[in-house]
Each structure stands twice: as C-alpha cells, then as structure tokens.
Amino acid sequence: MAEIKIKGVEKRFASFTALHSIDLTVKDQEFLVLLGASGCGKTTLLRLIAGLDFATEGEIQIGGKRVNELPPRSREIAMVFQNYAVFPHLTVFDNIGFGLRMKKMPSDQIRQKVTKAAEMMHIEQLLERYSGQLSGGQRQRVAVARALAMEPEVLLMDEPLSNLDALLRMEMRAELKGVLQESKTTTIYVTHDQVEAMSMADRIAVMHGGHIIQAASPISVYRDPASRFVGGFIGNPPMNFLPAKRSNGHWTAAGVAFDGPSVDKETIEFAIRPEDLDPSDTGLSGRVRVVEPLGAHQLVTMDVDGHLFRAVLESDLPIGSGETITLAPKPDRIRWFDPDSENALQ
Amino acid sequence: MTAADIAVSAKKVRPTDHRSASRWLMAATITILCLWVLVPIYLILVNTLSSPEEVTSWPRQFFPSFDLGSVTFFANYQGVARALLNSVIVAVMTMVFSIGLGAPAGYALARFDFPGKNVFRVVVLMTRAFPLPLLALPLAIMFIQIGLDDTRFGLALVHTMLAMPFAILITASLFMGIPYELEEAAWTLGCNRFTAFVKVVLPLVMPGIAASAVFAFVISWNEVFAAAVLTIQNRTLTAFLLTSLNEAPLALKFAGGAVLVLPALFFLFAVRKYLFAMWGIANR
Description:
The structure holds 2 protein chains of 2 kinds.
Chain A: E1 4-13, E2 16-26, E3 31-35, H1 42-50, E4 57-62, E5 65-66, E6 77-80, H2 92-102, H3 107-120, H4 136-149, E7 154-158, H5 166-183, E8 186-191, H6 194-200, E9 203-208, E10 211-216, H7 218-223, H8 228-233, E11 240-247, E12 250-253, E13 256-258, E14 267-272, E15 277-293, E16 297-304, E17 307-314, E18 324-329, E19 335-337, E20 344-345
Helix pairs in contact in A: 2-3, 2-4, 3-4
Chain B: H1 3-48, H2 52-56, H3 69-76, H4 80-111, H5 117-126, H6 132-146, H7 152-176, H8 180-188, H9 193-222, H10 225-230, H11 237-243, H12 250-270, H13 272-278
Helix pairs in contact in B: 1-12, 3-12, 4-7, 4-9, 4-11, 7-9, 7-13, 8-9, 9-12
C-alpha cells in the first residue's frame, strides 16, 4: 500500500529521449494502466519505477520515499514480466517462495504464504511441477502468484497477458482484476491493448512519443479525449475527424453547420465516435463504400466530403454499398480539436 | 509412348539420378572421414590390449588377445606415473584458470554493451592465430627469466591461453541463452547482481560450464609442443611419450597412446552437445 509520485522524470539513451519530463501520481491502492503503442515509453517508465533502469532526470517516490538510487530489491515492489520469467530450474513452489526465501522468512511461514498465493491463482495442484511442464496460462499464474506472495507495496505488470491466446486472455483479465481488487495493492499495468486497459483500469494514462497525453478514468479517456491522438488511438473503430471552417458564428463540417467552441481560428477539427451517429434526414451525408455486419451492429465505411468516415449502426437498417446515406451526430457527443496543437477545444 | 510421356519419365529420372549420385558422394566422404579417425584408434586399442610380444610380431591380428602385458609394462615404466600425475595436475589447473577467467569474460560479452566489444571478441580468437612454436621459444626464455620454467604452474598458464578463447566463447553463448528477464525477476525478488547470478543463472548454465571445463581439460591433456619445450623434470604424459619415442619399445607407445586418447575421446563425446552449440550447430 503506497502512493507513487513521479516528478519530472526523463530518460535519455545515447541520442534518443525515451521519456520527456513525466509527471504522474498513482494513488494508494489505485490500478493505473499505462496504455500506448509499442515504442511510446510505457515499458521504460515501468522499468524506471521498478529500478531495472535509472532515470536521467527527475524523482521517483514510492510511499513518500525517494527511490531513484535504490536497487529493485529495496523498493518494496514486485513485478510480473511479459515472458513470465518463471525460473526453469525451480518447482512452482520454489518459484513462488523465491522472494520470501531471499527475505530469510521461516519455512513454515513461506509454506503458508506460498499456499495462499497459489490458491488465489488456482494453481495449488501444480506446486511440485517445473515450468517446462506448464502451459503458457499456468506459467502466467505462477508469475502473478510469485509477485503477490511478496505482499509488495506496489505491483508492476509488463504486458502480462500479451502472450496468451485470445480466449485465455479474456478469462485471465477478469480473474486478475478480481484478485488485484482483493489484494488492494497499488498496481501499474502496462499494455498496448485498449480493451484490457478499458476493462481493468481505475485510471488510464495514455502515452505517446515519450509523453503522457492524458491520465483519466477509462470513460473520460473514451468520451473526452484530451487530444486528437487519444481520440484516434482509443476506440475500435477510432473517432472520425472532419475539418470544420468558421462561417458566421458556426463551424461548417462537410457542408453542415454546428455550434462549436469560440476560438480565434479559421479551421478546427470536428470529431465524433462512430457509434454516436443516427440515421436522419439532415446531417452528414456520404457514399457508402463497405458494409461489414458484426452481429448486433454493422460497421459502415463511407466517404464524407472526401474523408474516410465510419459509423456503427443497428444491424437491421437496410444499407448497401454505393448508396448515399445521411447521419446526424448526437450533439452532446461532438468533440473539437485544434489542428495545430492537436489539443481538445472546449 | 508419346513424346509427352517420355518428357515426363525423363523429368522423373533425372532428379533421382542426381540425388543418388550426391548421396553416394556424401556416403563415401563420411566413410573416409570415419576411417581416418577410427582406424588409428582401432590400431591403438588392438595393440594396447595385446601382449608386448604380439605387438612386435608379424602378421598382425585384427582382434586383441586382451592380454594386459602392454598396459602393465606401461604402468611400471620408469617415469610414467609421475608424467601421468603431471598431466592431470596441469590439466586441472588449466581447467580452473580458463573457467575462472573465461566465464566472467563470457558473461560480460553476453550481458553488457561496452566499447570495443567486437574488437575484444576478435582478439580472443586472434590469440589462436599464432602458431604455438612461434610463441613457445620466447615464452620459454621469459619463463626462465622469471623462474616459471619447468613448473606445472607455468605450463598451465600456457595451456590456459590455449583453452581460454574457447571457454570465453562457449560460456558467452551459454549466458546469451539465459533470458535477461530471469535475472531481472530475481532482482525484483530480493537478489543483488551476485545472488541473482548464483541462484538463477549458475544453476541453468552449470551443465554447459562443466562441458567447457572438460574441453579445457582435454586441450591441456592433449597439448604436446609447449609441454615438451617448457618442461624437463615436470614432463606431462604427452611430452614424456614424445621424448621417449626413440628409446621406448612399441608396446609402451601404444599403451601410452591409448591412455592419452581414451579420456579425451570419452570427455569430448560426453560434452559434444555444448561444443556444437558454440558453432551454432544444432545436435538433434
């Protein structure tokens, strides 16, 4: 149980800056997800917190104590690695008890804690096995149990589910969320999978190019992206963007006038999520290119004013490719972005 | 038969012909290489297991009489026991030195990026580029000057120089095979660099380290030139046999040969998997 404070942290490798002045506070018992595409710096940030790499500048605090100079073993953290890193020469029992043994804990206490952690992850029947005799999902469970057995102040997880197949990943996602809620440990979880981020996080920090673009609850990241990048990155299919021009007090996008923010610009960007569009007589019209039925919904890809535009519509609407349809955006779901700074406009 | 049929059958025949020819060539090459290695070993074994009279008599026998006369004669020959002991001591020292120095170097090559890493790798190999006779005489003079001549320790140093490049490269490839994540996981679980190495890396590379130690042992065990030049009283078995080639009877040479060849063969066979790994050859 501890708060993590990251103040102005920078990480430079020879000629490359991986992290630009990161400021972030993770509250006690919070589940924070670092979300971003590969190369955005999320794993680097996690490794700095773990002490596997060292920050070039700035300060990292865990539980109010500066840890910049401390090695991983003195930081009260536990980490789950992407490839599990289960020690192949030890049994599952010895893997889970490894950290406790390093703490020189008496063996009856080790046995008790290992059993508890194994029960939490439902692997108590595998304790005598070696990692070579386990499936990927089981190894994953061992890695999490090993971290939980340490009863750390902070739990760090680096894409722990990315090596599992889709079905197992969904199962583990829910189970992990339950276990972590119960353990009440401050958790930082790195992933590139936005579904994972959305479904598990208390708060998502979206990273891009070594910056944290937005750190907010999953719903507000989704509904109110702080920048055009977040809108385009979160959501599948992503947000639609159209250029909007100023015309006597309104903003005109694809020939339709909308009420928008009052800013001193000639052109800004209009944005709407694909599911926030309804068929209507007036609104944005365009020619349908492709219709993809998805069961409950259909994904319609169309041209609006020469721009690619996607809409998720009820699957019983009769729409064929080549037709021209008109869609009305829900007024309260329209968002606006500054095309230069890419930031959201109010 | 139509023209098309003929074309088809011709197509069928040609690749088979080609394949069987190359297969014959392959089989012949393998046979020659095997005989090249096995016939001398066979002759050594037959003669070692025959009585001294049979060794010098004619015609030769293809099967040994399993007479231990030659072996007994060899074992009792003046100086053999001492030379054998010297060989073992020098080889063990070589083994300890080349692993003790080579394994840390291999670990550094595998785990750290440092300036001159590639140069270092090449230099390690370059030490094997100079023929030993070229180095042996200057070395002998230097050893005399600093009082290392005719000592087991001095000879072990030279043998270490011969064995270390292999020790470094084999252990480097072993360490590279251990995911760095395992060490990092150990650090987060309360280890420092050293305890992580001892508790996680070492148990995983131990079989390979043992193999590379055995290889160092065999290099020293088989080495004759430096041993002959640098020692007089403290001859190893190879040097002893070489210098007594002229005076010793045939039976002694064969028995000595067998004593030299068999441990080396046995050890190398036992560790072949790891030696192949050094050159990236999969052994399945």
